[in-house]
Each structure stands twice: as structure tokens, then as C-alpha cells.
């Protein structure tokens, strides 16, 4: 069995922490944010994303085809980051090993 330490990840997770009362505070920037992320979906770079919690307190976006540095650069351009809706973000490799057939090319074989 291969060690995951020597495997290059095919996916990354971008994690956002939101300001309190994000549902109200994001309203002026939501359309621009969704359009910005939508372009990454169209380019094949984002395969899934959305807020977590009820009410939302953070968000996760799963990226493919981009390096950690490229994802960090994109995060810095997101209207939610620029306008303070995101208080902190991080990017981590995602070593997915199981998933739907639509994701078979993104899974790590260990």
C-alpha cells in the first residue's frame, strides 16, 4: 500500500470562516461571489461548494486542476474575502479515496 505522504493530491479544500450574521451581511456581495465561483465551476476547477452550519458559519469549496498557490490567489479575489465576509481562509490538500463515478479521475489510489 502506498503512503499518502508521497502522493500528489488531485483535490484541495478551500475553507472559509464567515463573520457572524453572515446571511444578512453577505447580501450586497452574494451575486458577485456566486458569479466569481461560478466561473471556476465553468472552468472545471470547482466541483462542489457551499456553506456549512444552520445558520451558516463557514464554507467549503472543493477544487481540482489547480495548485494550492493558485487557489489561495483565487480566494484573495473572491468578493466575500475582499469585503470582509470571510474572516479567515485556508487551503488544504484533499486525499479523496472514495467517491461517485463522476469523480473517479480525482480519487487517489492507495
Cα shape = elongated
Mean pLDDT: 93
The secondary-structure class comes to: alpha+beta
Helix content: 25-40%
| Total count of strands | 4
Give the helices and strands as they follow along the chain: EHHEEHHE
Tally of contiguous helical segments: 4
Q: Beta-strand percentage? A: 25-35%
Stretches where pLDDT is under 50 for at least 5 consecutive residues are none
Specify the biggest β-sheet. Answer: 4 strands, antiparallel
Keywords:
alpha+beta; 110 residues; 4 strands; four-stranded antiparallel sheet
3D structure, described in words:
The chain is α+β, with helices and mostly antiparallel strands and 110 residues long. It contains 4 helices and 4 strands. It has a 4-stranded antiparallel sheet with strand order 2-3-1-4. The longest helix has 13 residues, at 30-42. 28% of the residues lie in helices and 28% in strands. The chain has helices at 22-25, 30-42, 68-77, 79-82, and strands at 11-18, 46-52, 58-64, 86-94. The model has no long low-confidence stretch (mean pLDDT 93).
Amino acid at each position: 500500500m502506498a503512503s499518502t505522504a508521497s502522493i500528489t493530491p488531485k483535490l484541495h479544500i478551500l475553507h472559509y470562516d464567515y463573520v457572524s450574521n453572515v446571511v444578512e451581511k453577505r447580501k450586497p456581495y452574494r451575486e458577485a461571489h456566486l458569479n466569481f465561483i461560478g466561473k471556476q465551476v465553468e472552468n472545471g476547477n470547482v466541483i462542489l461548494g457551499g456553506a456549512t452550519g444552520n445558520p451558516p458559519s463557514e464554507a467549503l469549496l472543493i477544487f481540482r486542476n489547480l495548485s494550492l498557490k493558485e487557489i489561495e490567489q483565487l480566494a484573495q479575489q473572491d468578493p466575500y474575502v475582499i469585503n470582509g465576509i470571510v474572516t479567515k481562509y485556508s487551503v488544504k490538500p484533499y486525499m479523496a479515496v472514495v467517491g461517485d463515478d463522476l469523480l473517479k479521475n480525482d480519487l487517489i489510489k492507495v
